[in-house]
Amino acid sequence: MRPKRTLLLAALALFALAACVTTVSPAHRIVHAERPEARLAVSWIGHASTLVQMDDRFILTDPVLVDTIGSGVSHRKVGVPIDPADLPPLDAVLISHMHYDHLSLDSLSKIEHKVRRLYTPEGGLVYLTNFSFDAVDLARWETVNDRGMEITAVPVKHLGYRYILDQAWMHAFTGYVVRYHGLTVYFPGDTAYDKVDFAETRRRFGHIDLALLPIAPIHPRGWMERVHMDPREALDAFADLGADRMIPIHFDTFFDSLDSPHEARDTLIRLARERGLSDRVTVLAIGEQHVVIPR
Amino acid sequence: MSVARRSALVAGVCLLFAAPRALASADVPYDPHPPPTLAWTLAQLVPSPEVGVGGPHVAGGMRWQLTPLLYSFGMYRKLSPWRAFVVEPLTRQSGSVELFFSPEYLSAPGGGDEWLARMGVHATFPVLERGEKLAFTLGAGAHLGAETGAVFEAGVSVFAGVAGLFFSYAPRLTIAPATLMLRVRIF
């Protein structure tokens, strides 16, 4: 069978299977989102959604706070571990790209009154709709100073469209680096491995305290490697970025690949051990919180 | 049309698209206004099938859809609300008013066939997930062809407007006063 046909059949099979997933309750719940004992802390909400606390600032990445995305087609495997009402006021919401699992309009509706400003990649605002909060789009390497917090759009390697049919005009995707009070956090959203981009980001920012790096989907690798890192590549990216700490994201939340359950997580743990990085790579469960740098 | 009138018309159209962006914000965001491409043009040739009733025979047909101009009241306020021809899905589905032009072919076995065109105004309102999951549309206009008369339309659309079900009533359209269209729309 020809590769394109195989991929199409695989995509259709994934689409059908994604609709059949049953959402289970998370083992951990985030009740106290704010961690007074932390300078830098992360709560993993699942997939690419993280709540990052940098001193007194709160940043939410690619929020998915609902159980289904894609007009109800794709279900979370593990439910949302936080009631949106328990989120603190959000200084910044970072949207990396327009895919349903990263830009969830339903989720933004739930936190609309808490968001002070939302960031999208350049050209992304057209898919935002008219929320009441302020929104800004950033071009590659563009930096804004947001009340002392520096937010920079950094290059990643991915795809920008939301509906496939819109790929003629929608090419909005980016990663972000956030700096505040001497702390630096890297969030790429989705990305394939790109040594040049990672090295350039390291050159420009020097020191990165924390990299939130996607490690899945892995399979089918022939397709995924063009747009997604696997655990091995994520560890390579971690090295290229020269970050102090890594927290993996974008795994075990949606049925979006041919990966076996926990494959990405287990592979990362094994590889991190082999490379002597276990003390710098922290794998969280959905709903878990981690203090990266205490006060 | 005189040169002066034509220049005034062009200037007016330019102003229509540029003014809201200039007024919206000092830091104008990137708003590309995607132009028609060959792929988009070919996609517009995909017809929406329909069935017509109320005439002497049940009719089948096909309809195509064009949007010469759209004003979105649901898109993000820093962007220009105006679009012509190529309309990003959420720009329409999140709330919009548009001019529509729909060439149409109707055929009733044993009752002849007919080419016509519908044109008028559609207003689309978001229902679920800011219109991306579900939106409804009301419309009014006229049909032109062998017969001319008023048209009233109502419909719902899902999947960012790609699919929908539209009911249309044209009391003076003899071949099929009432039609139900399975709308297929690629932006």
Any idea what the CATH architecture of chain B is? Answer: Beta Barrel
> In terms of per-residue confidence, which ranges of chain B show pLDDT below 50 for 5 or more consecutive residues?
14-26
Q: Quickly count the domains of chain A.
A: 1
CATH H-level superfamily of chain A: Ribonuclease Z/Hydroxyacylglutathione hydrolase-like
Q: What kind of sheet is the major sheet of chain A?
A: 7 strands, mixed
Dominant shape of chain A: globular
Overall residue-averaged pLDDT value of chain A: 93
Describe what this molecule looks like in 3D.
The complex is a heterodimer of chains A (295) and B (187). In chain A, 21% of the residues lie in helices and 26% in strands. Chain A is of the alpha/beta class. Chain A has a single domain (23-294), classed as Ribonuclease Z/Hydroxyacylglutathione hydrolase-like (Metallo-beta-lactamase, Chain A). Chain A is globular, with a radius of gyration of 18 Å. Chain B has one domain (31-184): Porin. An eight-stranded antiparallel beta barrel of chain B has the order 1-2-5-6-7-8-9-10. In chain B, strand 1 (48-53) and strand 2 (59-63) form a beta hairpin. The two termini of chain B are 32 Å apart. Classes of the chains: A alpha/beta (295), B alpha+beta (187). The interface between A and B is medium-sized, with 25 and 36 residues.
In a nutshell, what does this entry contain?
Chain A has 295 residues and is α/β, with parallel strands linked by helices. Chain A has six helices and 15 strands. Chain A has a single domain (23-294), classed as Metallo-beta-lactamase, Chain A (4-Layer Sandwich).
Can you lay out the helices and strands and say which pair or pack?
The complex is a heterodimer of chains A (about 300) and B (about 190).
Chain A: H1 3-20, E1 38-46, E2 49-54, E3 57-61, E4 68-69, E5 74-75, E6 92-94, H2 105-111, E7 117-121, E8 134-138, E9 143-146, E10 149-154, E11 175-180, E12 183-187, H3 195-205, E13 208-214, H4 221-224, H5 231-241, E14 243-249, H6 263-274, E15 289-294
Parallel strand pairs in A: 3-6, 6-7, 7-8, 12-13, 13-14
Antiparallel strand pairs in A: 1-2, 1-15, 2-3, 4-5, 9-10, 10-11, 11-12
Helix pairs in contact in A: 3-5
Chain B: H1 3-24, H2 38-43, E1 48-53, E2 59-63, E3 66-72, E4 82-83, H3 89-93, E5 96-108, E6 112-128, E7 134-145, E8 149-158, E9 163-169, E10 178-184
Antiparallel strand pairs in B: 1-2, 1-10, 2-5, 3-4, 3-5, 5-6, 6-7, 7-8, 8-9, 9-10
